[in-house]
Design brief:
The chain has 439 residues and is of the alpha/beta class. A seven-stranded parallel sheet has the order 3-4-2-5-6-1-7, with helices on both faces. The chain has a six-stranded parallel sheet with strand order 8-13-12-9-11-10, sandwiched between helices. Helix 2 packs parallel to helix 3, helix 6 packs across helix 8 and helix 14 crosses helix 15. The chain has 17 helices and 13 strands. The structure holds adenosine monophosphate. The site of adenosine monophosphate has 15 residues, from helix 3.
């Protein structure tokens, strides 16, 4: 199978070949012909499958084939919604890369940066807009976007947008779009909520699924290292140092934990940066750039911040703490083994996390091999302590952070319990926080 046989125009083939792709990935081979026909699509694809080119290439081609700018003025004819700023920036880069030989204009809007330069670009007119939902609504309320001419809508990583509490924002955006349009929805998992959203939105969609739902990528070798909680950092430094790893993505459950671990690694002589929702957009971009360029060896991330990060050929992913939601494990390890490269995902698991590990193994339908390191044997006298399992790490993250701010620095506040009726107040809280995160 070649890109030429998919029916793409010469300008797109040229851009693809300059990118060095020799053949379409399975999702590209399946989705591109259907999308060129104008079909709606429900795409089940993990990150790293090449789904971005899978929707961007046909999107560009269809925009070229349909109407020209009206009265010389461009209108937004394609809208791509993503959950995080990083993913928005990456998709926007792909649009620029694949569209470099076409006379189409695009821009990206997300929060955390000034709105005015975004407005200037929008006023000049764009054909394609990539956006996070919160900032897009800011532009709607400031009348800097007109969504009434959208022909193609892409909801990328829809499951994560719902997880992050964006459903209301998405519905508000949908209400501003024309009824007749081509709609694409990509999701790594298909919950009832996603199916409901899809049912109301998609018109006889083609279904394209490349990796079986909720199974972890075949190219990623997975291993669990049982270890006491208090010795995880030591083991991590040992693994990085003794294997001479140059590029490691490490996951923690909380923003506070990410900061603390990156500081501690620095004291072990390992360059590290943290990336999470409390960091300014500038700091997030810099941390990612430093990690990609090899300036820092370790990027410590929370689940939300890491979502959508495309770091090519990332060899090592470490779960310093297991996620509260088993699906997040699949997303995390999807950061390695991307686009045909082999990767290694290891989890440092303490006695508290045994239940979380069981949930993950049930989800991926296999047991993950365990290996205890000499000198790091877990102390059998340590009793498990409970881990709060809210409806997702995000709730817990905000709860823990507020707890973290109150406690003294360096004290272990990983396990601050929810107080009083926090459970009832949480959903709104969660939604607001996360909206801020992506705005
Ligand atoms: P995505 O799943 O869209 O985030 O893409 C994951 C990675 O695969 C990105 O680094 C892409 O540049 C790369 N990629 C996309 N399509 C291909 C292809 N046909 N051949 C090789 N690499 C690709």
């Amino acid at each position: 199978m070649s890109f030429e046989s998919l029916g793409l125009r010469a300008e797109l083939l040229r851009a693809v070949s300059e990118k060095g792709y020799s053949a379409p990935t399975p999702i590209q081979a399946q989705a591109i012909p259907l999308l060129l026909e104008g079909r709606d699509l429900m795409g089940g694809a993990q990150t790293g499958t090449g789904k971005t080119a899978g929707f961007t290439l046909p999107l560009l081609q269809r925009l070229m084939a349909t109407s020209k700018p009206e009265n010389g003025r461009r209108a937004i004819r394609a809208l791509v919604l993503t959950p995080t700023r990083e993913l928005a920036a990456q998709v926007a880069d792909s649009v620029l890369t694949y569209g470099r030989y076409l006379p189409l204009r695009s821009t990206v809007v997300f929060g955390g940066v000034s709105i005015n330069p975004q407005k200037q670009k929008l006023i000049k007119g764009v054909d394609i807009l990539v956006a996070t939902p919160g900032r897009l609504l800011d532009h709607v309320s400031q009348r800097s976007v007109d969504l009434s001419k959208v022909d193609i809508l892409v909801l990328d990583e829809a499951d994560r947008m719902l997880d992050m509490g964006f459903i209301r924002d998405i519905r508000k955006v949908l209400a501003l779009l024309p009824k007749h349009k081509q709609t694409l929805l990509f999701s790594a998992t298909f919950s009832t909520e996603i199916k409901q959203l899809a049912n109301g939105l998609l018109n006889s969609p083609a279904l394209v699924e490349v990796a079986q739902q909720n199974t972890s990528s075949e190219l990623v070798s997975q291993i669990v290292h049982p270890v006491d909680k208090g010795r995880k950092r030591e083991l991590l430094s040992f693994l990085i140092g003794s294997n001479n790893w140059k590029q490691v993505l490490v996951f923690t459950r909380t923003k506070h934990g990410a900061n603390r671990l990156s500081e501690q690694l620095a004291t072990d002589g390992i360059t590290a940066a943290a990336i999470h929702g409390n960091k300014s957009q500038g700091a997030r971009t810099k941390a990612l750039a430093d990690f990609k360029s090899g300036k820092v060896r370790v990027l410590v991330a929370t689940d939300i911040a890491a979502r959508g990060l495309d770091i090519s050929q990332l060899p090592h992913v470490v779960n310093y703490e297991l996620p509260n939601i088993a699906e997040d494990y699949v997303h995390r390890i999807g950061r390695t083994g991307r686009a045909g490269n082999e990767g290694e995902a290891m989890s440092l698991v303490c006695v508290d996390e045994k239940g979380l590990l069981k949930d993950i193994e049930r989800l991926i339908k296999r047991d993950i091999p365990k290996k205890i390191f000499d000198g790091f044997e877990p102390d059998p006298s340590i009793k498990p302590e409970p881990i709060n399992k809210g409806r997702g790490g995000r709730q817990q993250q905000s709860s823990k952070n507020s707890a973290g701010r109150k406690s003294s620095p360096g004290r272990n506040n990983q396990r601050a319990p929810f107080k009083g009726n926090a459970g009832r107040g949480q959903p709104q809280n969660r939604s607001r926080r996360n909206t801020q995160n992506a705005r």
